Amino acid sequence: MSTFFENTQKLVEEAARIAQVPGDVLARLQKPDKILEFKIQVGSKKFQAWRVQHNNALGLYKGGIRFHPDSNLDEVKALASLMTWKTSLMGLPYGGAKGAVKVDARALSAGELEELSRGYVRAIWQEIGPQKDVPAPDVGTNSQIMDWMTDEYSKLVGHWEPSAFTGKSVEKGGSRGREVATGFGGFVILREFLKFRNSKLEIRNSPPEVAIQGFGNVGSNIAKLLFDNGFRVVAISDSKGALYEEDGIDIPKVLDVKEKTGIIERPRCYAVSSHGETCKQFTNEELLELSVDILIPAALENVINEANTERIKAKVILEMANGPTVSEAEKMLVGRGVEIIPDILANGGGVVGSYFEWLQSLEQKYWGEGDVLKKIDEQLVRAFQTVLEIKNKYNISWRTASFVRAMERVAKAATKL
Ligand code: GLU
Questions:
Q1: Is the distance from CB of 332 to CB of 309 less than 8 angstroms?
Q2: Domain residue ranges in the chain
Q3: Is residue 63 within 6 Å of ligand 1 at its C-beta?
Q4: Helix, strand or coil, per DSSP, at residue 388
Q5: pLDDT for the residue 200
Q6: Strand partners, 102
Q7: How far away, in angstroms, is 18 Cα from ligand 1 center?
């Protein structure tokens, strides 16, 4: 199996071929501009950390920081590259970057987590900033961590600088709507996709049945939106495993429990139906193989791969995680008529929300949640339409069309440098 970064490089090469990007420009777009590799000391422990700035032809470097025990440089390089294509596809004046710390954050005390977050900023503060590189949350990080990072950065530069980070809490200069932005964006893209497919899509069930892998910020917010809009969410999962409820899961009930206890308590399945639970519990891998209409991987990369492709039964895959499908698996699935809505389109709502937060932070003028979501909705509908145009023009997959569109903008800007 190719690595995550190799997989991403293949997508970039294919897009460059279709967009007829000259070889020397492509070579520049494949190499990250800068790789920062450093260690962060917290008490007696040391943690490996990275920030990869992939490309800034369209504007400042933008992308999240991940805290995860399996993080590695190959992953951060791939994620940084995906950010370049995502911000371009979303029509933002940004390039792409990503950061990570190899850490099991759940094993740290709150004090250690704060120290780690501040240590990250102390290590690279001269390389980031509101017109240079603006980090945001990703897997394992949240608004509290962005608040600590913003505070640390502000201390180092000697003045309050809220536009140096996005995904902050609303109390600390974050944007209303940013917390739900990624899930909301995924919902908008799915809505547009279903509208476009209309009766041509072979949805087996009415309402459509959905399985969602991952119940962090992204998975839980899209689950709630789908539930509120009449979809039947039959399976969800977290790192401890998956729950399946034939009649559908009452997502607000799960969210309520998660808010109080921090976890999805077992062995309940939170059935919507009043005639008792038919709850099944199984693994995250089994969730991916369910016979549902829409499968939403919203956790980590490479989960749909050569090992399980043959058993994937969903008709539509909405990639809310970054890089969940490896290229070999995608070829087989698309060959079988599965429609894969790629990460850089499906989860772009997060960085679009970040862009609106950055604008508000720069102006110190704050908008209502309705305004923010409306703007995200419009931006995503535009992105969807441009992808559709390219898809039809070249008769290519959603992913290739998304990368071609993203590539056209970046390559044009890069050629002018
Ligand atoms: N981590 C998110 C992503 O992968 C958001 C990045 C950002 O807002 O800068 O798109």
A1: yes
A2: 32-161, 181-346
A3: yes
A4: helix
A5: 54
A6: 68
A7: 27
The pLDDT of residue 276: 73
The answer to whether residues 270 and 254 touch, using CB atoms and an 8 Å cutoff, is yes
Domain formed by 32-161, architecture:
3-Layer(aba) Sandwich (3.40)
In a 13 Å sphere around the CA of 327, the CA atoms on its Cβ side amount to 15
pLDDT, one tens digit per residue, over 240-252 is: 999 999 999 999 9
Could you list the active site residues? Answer: 98
pLDDT along the chain (417 residues), means of 10: 92 97 96 98 98 98 98 98 98 98 96 98 98 98 98 98 98 97 98 84 75 97 96 95 94 95 87 82 96 97 96 97 96 96 98 98 97 98 98 97 98 87
Query: 215: helix, coil or strand?
Result: coil
Q: Report the separation in Å between the CA atom of 267 and the middle of ligand 1, taken as the mean of its atom positions.
A: 33
**Contact residues for 102 (Cβ-Cβ < 8 A; gap 6+):** 47, 48, 49, 68, 69, 70, 71, 72
Alpha-carbon span 29 to 22, nearest angstrom: 11
**CA dist., res. 333 & res. 284, Å (int):** 19
Query: Does ligand 1 have an atom closer than 6 angstroms to the CB of 322?
Result: yes
Q: Does the beta carbon of 62 lie inside 6 Å of ligand 1?
A: yes
**CB distance 350 to ligand 1 below 6 Å:** yes
What phi and psi, each to the nearest 5 degrees, are found at residue 333? -65, -45
State if pTM tops 0.90.
Answer: yes
| Total H helices, total E strands in the chain | 14, 12
Q: Which CATH class is domain 181-346?
A: alpha beta
Ligand 1: nearest atom to the Cα of 63: 9
Q: How far is the CA of 266 from the centre of ligand 1 (A)?
A: 31
Distance between Cα 97 and ligand 1 center (Å): 9
Tell which residue, 102, 126, 111, has the closest CA to residue 43.
Answer: 111
Q: Ligand 1 test: best mutation among 146, 166, 182, 351, most atoms within 8 Å of CB? A: 351
pLDDT at site 267: 80
Q: What does each C-alpha distance from 197 to 292, 325, 393 come to in angstroms?
A: 17, 22, 17
